[in-house]
Specification:
Two copies of one chain form a homodimer. By secondary structure, the first copy, chain A, is mostly helical. Chain A is built from 16 helices and two strands. Chain A has helices spanning about 5-25, 30-40, 45-60, 65-85, 100-105, 105-125, 130-160, 165-190, 195-225, 225-230, 235-240, 245-255, 255-265, 275-285, 290-305, 315-330, and strands at about 90-95, 95. Chain A has a two-stranded antiparallel ribbon. In chain A, a hairpin with a 2-residue loop joins strand 1 and strand 2 (about 95). In chain A, helix 3 (about 45-60) packs antiparallel against helix 4 and helix 3 (about 45-60) packs antiparallel against helix 16. Chain A starts with a helix and ends with a helix. The relative contact order of chain A is 0.12. At the A-B interface, helix 4, helix 6 and helix 7 of A face helix 4, helix 6 and helix 7 of B.
């Protein structure tokens, strides 16, 4: 990540972090609050708060006013991670053990619920700064996005047991599970900043395209990056049987033997490292990784072109830098 | 339950039910929406919606305007049930298998999250009928109550592994896990109905006392009612090691042998029916059940006396009837 972008992310989200910790104090019952803070502590890039604040500024608003909404969306994001890790039985996230691994499944569910409720506590603090009509609109957007994320998670799980998933089904699932909350971040920021409807819509479309690219790159990194930079074991996606676009493309273009190599590892929790490596190499030789990389870049171009209506500004530049970073990141 | 009260509950909550089904249509992904509707379908007394609508009317408001808020609180309640059943590994609820038993733990978590998000969708529909300031206040109350319920569930789980729980700790846990959302129902109804601060506070205090009585009676029924009317296996609370007030009183007053009889069954998932029965009989002979019944009645009197400031009205009468029903119900 460019130093510049790191600085922009950190600067803009410092106050969001402060609010997150204010909302999750070291309070009784201690284990619940500790479990709730665990993933927040572990880091994360705070891309969603960055989007909220940047889009607020981009339409001419004061980003400080959107801090509670930025914290709200980050809390929603973290709640979905805590619960998804239980559903998917993932043991590592952001390089540390997942919440349920440390605290058990019951407290993990409980902590996710707490983060969810805290998201609305955060959002409702915007009453001080954001006009009622705009705040209700922002709450509508956050709520609808969360419903959509739940649908996306259900689809993602259903795909794991499904032999044949089409590219179209995949795109729909990613739009729901990953892109929806990113889109909501942009829209909520623009709404809070006093943006006009067409500006909100345009930013939403830009971030939707970038969000789809984001997931595609994530899928690639899941196969090619190493565990240290990834924060979770290499090949997790293959072991869990995730129907990523790479796998869908691969299975659609594989000959019989190639299919067998992929399917031997796919969804097989006991697959050996060798079987995983063979499956990944087969996907590479089928051009599936290149295909998805090219598609991610095309979505990035689309995302950037959506921003053309906005006059050049510092905020707009930062957003374009984020879009490029999303497809260029190597970890 | 008196026929009159049944009719009052049904009449007042019919439109709430309609809204619940409108919010949870038979939509893609089908399993997720089916799992989310499961407990709503299974019934439940809709005590919380009744409280919202009745308290709205009691302070002079039009209860129809509070329907979205009543639906919201019922959805919050159902989300907590779905997740609690997973955390507590309960297999029966309202006489039917719990959500995770039918759909698996991952979809159970997912469905609970969906119900949670849908609660805010429901509440935000009140934008049409409730003034912004009052609706924000109602959202604050719902959100704080949900946070409190999460804390209560964490305490309840922590108690299961704890040897010594005091009566004070028990009351605090029940105030959080059970009473908080009932109190929120009353307050939200009164807020939406245009109630004055002291009216909202008074109704909150009344329902808090009644809510504590409610849980005590529930604890008694958990030991004395049979499976058919209870909707879950007799002795579940003992098997799960729940520190109910009955158990706390019993252990505080038991001699060595009596303690052993209780502890042999308490928290022992493999306890035989005979061991359960012996534990229950020991608690009876120690006067623990009578003690809790008397305490529940005292809380009921307190609840009713809180209502004295309100002039007699149909709504007030219905609320008093509900309070009495809560301590008199035999199932």
């Amino acid at each position: 990540m460019s130093e510049e972008l790191v600085k922009a992310l950190n600067d803009s989200t410092k106050q969001v972090n402060d609010l997150l910790y204010e909302l999750l104090p070291e309070r009784y019952p201690k284990d619940l609050y500790k479990a709730s803070r665990h993933l927040i502590d572990a880091g994360g890039k705070r891309v969603r708060p960055f989007l909220v604040l940047t889009c607020c500024e981009l339409v001419g608003g004061n980003p400080l006013k959107a801090i509670p909404l930025a914290a709200a969306i980050e809390l929603i994001h973290n709640f979905t991670l805590v619960h998804d890790d239980i559903m998917d039985q993932d043991r590592l996230r952001r390089g540390v053990p997942t919440v349920h691994v440390l605290y058990g499944v019951p407290l993990g569910i409980n902590a996710g619920d707490m983060l969810f409720a805290k998201a609305y506590e955060a959002a409702l603090r915007a009453q001080r700064n954001v006009k009622p009509g705009r705040l209700f609109k922002a709450l509508d957007v956050i709520t609808e996005a969360t419903i959509t994320v739940c649908e996306g998670q259900a689809l993602d799980m259903a795909f794991e047991g499904k032999m044949k998933v089409t590219e179209r089904e995949y795109m729909d699932m990613v739009a729901k599970k990953t892109a929806a909350l990113l889109v909501a971040s942009a829209c909520v920021g623009a709404i809070a900043g006093g943006g006009k409807s067409y500006e909100v819509a345009r930013l939403g479309r830009a971030v939707r395209a970038s969000g789809l690219a984001f997931q595609m790159v994530d899928d690639i990194l899941g196969l090619t990056a190493d565990e240290k930079v990834l924060g979770k074991p290499v090949g997790s996606d293959i072991r869990e049987g995730k129907r990523t676009l790479i796998v869908i493309h691969g299975l659609n273009h594989a000959k019989k033997l190639q299919s067998e190599t992929i399917l031997r590892a796919l969804g097989n929790r006991n697959a050996s490292l060798e079987e995983i490596t063979k499956a990944v190499n087969t996907l590479k030789s089928l051009g599936s990784i290149d295909y998805v990389a090219a598609k991610a870049e095309a979505f990035n171009q689309r995302a950037k072109s959506e921003l053309r209506i906005f006059p050049s500004s510092n905020a707009c530049e930062r957003l374009l830098t984020l879009f490029d970073y999303i497809v260029e990141r190597k970890y």
